[in-house]
Amino acid sequence: MSMADPVADSLPEGLFQLLFEKSPGSLLVKANAPVFTIVAASDAYLKITSVKREDVVGKGFFEVFPDTDDDPNDETKARYAFNKVADTGEQHDVPVYRYDSINPETNQLEECYWSCSNTPITARNGKVSYILNTVIDITGEVKVKKVAIESENRLLLAAEATGLAFWDLGIKEFNFSYSPQLKSIFGHTPETEITLSFIRNQIHPEDMQHVVLRAYAEALETGRYEYEVRIFWPDESLHWIRTKGVVLFDEKKEPMRMLGTIVDITDIKRDDIRKNDFIAMASHELKTPLTSLKAYIQLLEIKLANATDPFVGTSLLKALNQVNKMTALIHSFLDLSKIEPGKLELKKQLFDINKLANDTIAESRIIAGTHHIKFQSTGEMNVNADREKIAQVISNFISNAIKYSPKGSTVNLTTELTDHHVLVSVSDMGIGIKPKDQEKIFQRFYRVDDEDMKHVSGFGIGLYLSSEIIHRHKGKIGVKSTEGTGSTFYFSLPLAD
Ligand code: ADP
């Protein structure tokens, strides 16, 4: 092992001086208060302060850079900093301060920001002999930050004007921040301190269970969420809010942050509720005459069972079919009016889904003599669900398959077991659905807007109701489809224990 060469290890004479002069923004002053004689200055320091080396070295600091005001307690000022470092022997930093300087290109005085530190250089006897003053130009950073703050303020103002509130939740640390508007949306005064659990407790318990938890689970998968819920204000009045936002994931795909907007939609909802009440009332009124119409047709069927004219029989059957269609439609309107304010109640019972599928197909065959309906299943599959509502979903899938596929084609219904769930699928060989429409057909009143669809009647509520019913059962619903080839609608329900 060779020893280090003592000559190569020491720096040539004058090199320290040179290094200092080339360093960014440095000035060395003697700790001889109150003069503070300048000992050395780097090129960069001379440039930013627009002075020449020969004019400053050997002069007192304040002779060259006079104080703009004489407040001895201003911690951002050099006099305070130098005195403090000289007295205490401790470093003193000024992270940001303003000191305007002349731009050599324009010769104009410009707004400038600096960050400076003052480091003591202590002699062997422990006394501070020099102070190293380093200055960095941070005008660019400060201006960028100013622009960002201004634009955030503008955004907050615009949000306030439109009643929008922002919130941001760090999932791991559970830190919650929000814009001031959030307090008024939840019925609080600006002085009230609120936390996430505080406002979570204001959400209607039913919506918490059916809407929020579901949306949260979905958001962790899709990265997006949007939902509407009822909240109680501290004065116990009921309000509606809509929230929409995104989940941000870290590099390990773990959810990191959730952020979004919240808006009060109580007025819109009150309108909606009035409309719903009207639909409920109208549907209810229509049900009574329709029930008696159906009874009369059925009586006529019995009375005219032996009629010789075949027209009588077929006409009565057609009339009954139309009455049944109308009854189904009225029922879906009634369900629609109940689903919105969260009034849809599930009457759960244990039943075999295959038996239900068979019963539903038998009923559908009466209406749909035009298609072949095939059913394939394996054994008994019990679920704990609302039998009538699940029948409604299957029947809706079948009637859509019939509506949107050519006469004489086959509709296949299958049930299968997948991972503690029952999967029910209905496939057709029909017109299919474009990918852009597939995302939307489960929304309320959404119908595909195509020329060749104009003649098919409907209100765009069947799939919306189906999806609400399945989601309330904690199941999944969806579609796979190829335009021009056909569609498969499916739902899954948890298997009963
Ligand atoms: P409706 O059939 O009364 O319009 P739905 O909510 O049942 O309402 O369906 C919404 C839309 O989805 C329909 O208008 C139709 O465009 C499309 N759709 C539903 N089922 C099918 C299907 N099996 N094949 C093709 N399109 C379908």
Structure explained in plain terms:
- The chain has 497 residues and is α+β, with helices and mostly antiparallel strands.
- The protein folds into four domains: 13-142, Beta-Lactamase, CATH 3.30.450; 163-264, Beta-Lactamase, CATH 3.30.450; 269-339; 348-494, 2-Layer Sandwich (Heat Shock Protein 90), CATH 3.30.565.10.
- 41% of the residues lie in helices and 26% in strands.
- It has helices at residues 6-9, 15-22, 43-49, 53-56, 61-64, 78-88, 139-162, 181-185, 196-200, 205-222, 266-303, 310-339, 353-367, 387-403, 435-438, 462-472, and strands at residues 26-30, 38-41, 92-98, 101-103, 108-110, 113-122, 128-137, 164-170, 175-178, 224-232, 238-249, 255-264, 348-352, 372-376, 382-386, 410-418, 421-427, 476-482, 486-494.
- The strands form five sheets. The chain has a five-stranded antiparallel β-sheet with strand order 2-1-7-6-3, sandwiched between helices.
- α13 crosses α14 and α14 (387-403) packs antiparallel against α16 (462-472).
- The chain is elongated.
- The model has no long low-confidence stretch (mean pLDDT 88).
- Bound molecules: adenosine-5'-diphosphate.
- Residues 396, 400-401, 404, 428, 430-431, 433, 441, 446-448, 453, 458-464, 487 line the site of adenosine-5'-diphosphate (ADP).
